[in-house]
């Protein structure tokens, strides 16, 4: 057992981190918006280096699962441990500082701030002290961003903004990336480019949770898949298991 003392802004967070323990261990999550009960006992585990996809039709609770894990919508019942840290009573920024790069729906690119500034502002050693993702490596991974380095981020195309959002998350030297609908609304060629980048990121050893609608890419890149229906996990297994029973995707996503 490794006991790590982590800096979290002005507050020190003591985290008992077991290197063998999962990066994320969420059990029995029940999440509400007001009186509306959206998650009904979701369990989710993510191990180091693993790529996990969240599948499900619109409105089934994928984004809410991510927001529950990150503390934006804290679950009313259940427990989330991130790299050993019990996240109850933690603020989202404290949770993210455990080593999470979050790429939200909508990208979060600011007007009046250049590509370089977006990247430089985010730069930080990882929670484990790693600094292997720096601006040079991000620009090598995203040649389109290199070409647009001085441009206002908000004036980039949708695909370039998405790349900037992912590049910015990598500048945090995260142990895991969370990507919510990273290829939504993009042209097919740009989507392919982003999937290729996600494969590169996976090969670098960073774990990820990906919410996306492209099943073929998810089956190829993902190690494991959680299928969420009305706030409950109805399938948790690998690509082989999902391919072996097309009725699962057919029933719950209308594809198969
Ligand atoms: N801020 C909110 N207030 C009230 N209800 C919400 C809120 N956000 C989401 N919901 C509801 O919670 C349920 C789950 O939504 P969620 O966004 O998690 O689904 P999703 O699986 O990510 O689907 P999508 O792909 O449409 O985002 C839906 O019924 C949605 O209408």
From TrEMBL:
Q: InterPro entries recorded for this chain?
A: AAA+_ATPase (IPR003593), ABC_transporter-like_ATP-bd (IPR003439), ABC_transporter-like_CS (IPR017871), BCAA_Transport_ATP-bd_LivF (IPR052156), P-loop_NTPase (IPR027417)
**Keyword Transferase set for record:** no
Which Pfam families did the record assign? Answer: ABC_tran
Tell me if ATP-binding is a UniProt keyword of this record.
yes
What are the record keywords, sorted?
Amino-acid transport, ATP-binding, Nucleotide-binding, Transport
Residue ranges of every copy of the ABC transporter domain listed in the record: 24-255
Q: Which domain of life is it from?
A: Bacteria
A Gene Ontology MF term for this entry?
ATP binding
The cross-references to PANTHER family, in alphabetical order and at most eight, read: ABC TRANSPORTER ATP-BINDING PROTEIN, HIGH-AFFINITY BRANCHED-CHAIN AMINO ACID TRANSPORT ATP-BINDING PROTEIN LIVF
Family named by the database record = Belongs to the ABC transporter superfamily.
Which protein are we looking at? ABC transporter ATP-binding protein
């Amino acid at each position: 057992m490794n006991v790590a003392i982590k800096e979290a802004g002005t507050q020190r967070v003591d985290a008992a981190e077991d290197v063998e323990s999962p990066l994320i261990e969420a059990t029995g999550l029940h999440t509400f918006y007001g009186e509306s009960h959206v998650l009904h006992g979701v369990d989710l585990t993510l191990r180091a280096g693993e790529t996990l996809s969240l599948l499900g039709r619109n409105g089934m609770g994928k984004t809410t699962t991510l927001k529950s894990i990150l503390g934006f919508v804290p679950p009313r019942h259940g427990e989330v441990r991130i790299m050993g840290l019990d996240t109850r009573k933690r603020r989202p920024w404290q949770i993210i500082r455990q080593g999470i790069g979050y790429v939200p729906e909508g990208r979060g690119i600011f007007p009046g701030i250049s590509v370089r500034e977006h990247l430089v502002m985010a730069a930080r050693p990882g929670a484990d002290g790693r600094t292997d993702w720096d601006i040079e490596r991000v620009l090598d991974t995203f040649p389109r961003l290199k070409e647009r380095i001085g441009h206002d981020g908000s004036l980039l195309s949708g695909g370039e903004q998405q790349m900037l959002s992912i590049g910015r998350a990598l500048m945090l030297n995260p142990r895991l990336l969370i990507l919510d609908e990273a290829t939504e609304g993009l042209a097919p060629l740009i989507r392919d480019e982003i999937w290729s980048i996600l494969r590169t990121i996976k090969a670098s050893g960073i774990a990820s949770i990906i919410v996306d609608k492209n099943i073929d890419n998810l089956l190829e890149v993902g190690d494991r898949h959680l299928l969420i229906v009305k706030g409950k996990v109805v399938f948790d297994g690998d690509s082989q298991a999902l391919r072996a029973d097309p009725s699962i995707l057919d029933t719950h996503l209308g594809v198969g």
